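Box S1 | Example of a co-folding query
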Amino acid sequence: MVVSIERSSRRARRFRGIAAAALLACVAVPACDDEPDPIDPGDDDPFVLAETFPLDAPGRAFAIVEDAPPIALVASEFHSDIAGISLKPGSLASLFELEAPKGPRAICASSRDVLVAGTSSASVVRYELEDGDLVERETVEVDGPPTAVACADADGDGVTDFAAAVGFEEEATIIPFGSGSLAPGDGVPFASASSLRFADVDDDGDLDLVALATAQTSLAIVVREGAGYGESTTLDLPCEAPRATAAMGSATIAVACDGEILLVENPISDAPTVTSIEAQPALYDVVADDFDGDGNLDLAAVGIIEHELEVWMGPTAQLQHYEYPVARGPIALAISRSQSNEDSALIVLSFEQARLSVFEH
Ligand SMILES: [Ca+2]
Ligand SMILES: [Ca+2]
Ligand SMILES: [Ca+2]
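Box S1 (continued) | Returned holo structure for calcium ion
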């Protein structure tokens, strides 16, 4: 089933054009070593840049394991390694560096379980965090390059469930794996996915799968039915260059596009609605959660042209907008809420300048 969706509002975009090449263009330029200007937080600024951490190699993807303290896992696609960085407030430190499956392009974490997509090696590897170390548990070969992975406890039984998007173009599928293992379930055909998430799109309490295809500007949603998954619904997105998604509570998906975030409500109903929030060009990642524990869902996104972290604090009808400069080439964003619900941190991975930036609430 393919569903077309209409926007509920349109807003002017400040800038158009994607410069994926710009991501790489700056690596050898001395000016890239410049740190962003220090931020003078206003009285009501919800976040402050607390710390930056230089990485040995530019990271392509990262995930946070909520240990005590939390650990950032940064996958370096070109060096095929995974760096573990302790996010202990005030003293970020390198914990370990381990060999990854070749070309790690995507990584996810849930509880102490970690999944890594080895894109060049057409394999998916499951790790577990044990005594502060990442221990390899299982490797499966898949029918094509895995381009995205997802980890979450989809059915609430305390055991992590895994999924991967595998292959390009006509050969591409979404593979739900077994509970706690990488026993492959039935693949669901979908265009090559750049991102894959567990999210409760039908608001029935279990987590469904949401895949995003950047080239096709479409979402595929695979609803969980009992212990398995049903057929997929495809939605064409009314935006340009969508690169990431986030679950915004139940039944709403936030999509990071060029110059806007789309909020897609009730995506599997007959009439999904889309609201556009104006944002910087070339968004690369988005997260949604209640950052400050006030009961309203909030949003954050990063973009690779203006090199900013943008934050919108809820309620959704009256979002307050904040901007923070970050190290060049911010391509990934995650929330860490290990300290307490009111004390979350936003962690930004910058590719060009090979840095992690920690914004504390
Ligand atoms: Ca489970
Ligand atoms: Ca569901
Ligand atoms: Ca909030």
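The longest strand covers residues 133-141. Residues 153-155, 157, 159, 161, 179 surround calcium ion (ligand 1) (CB under 6 Å).
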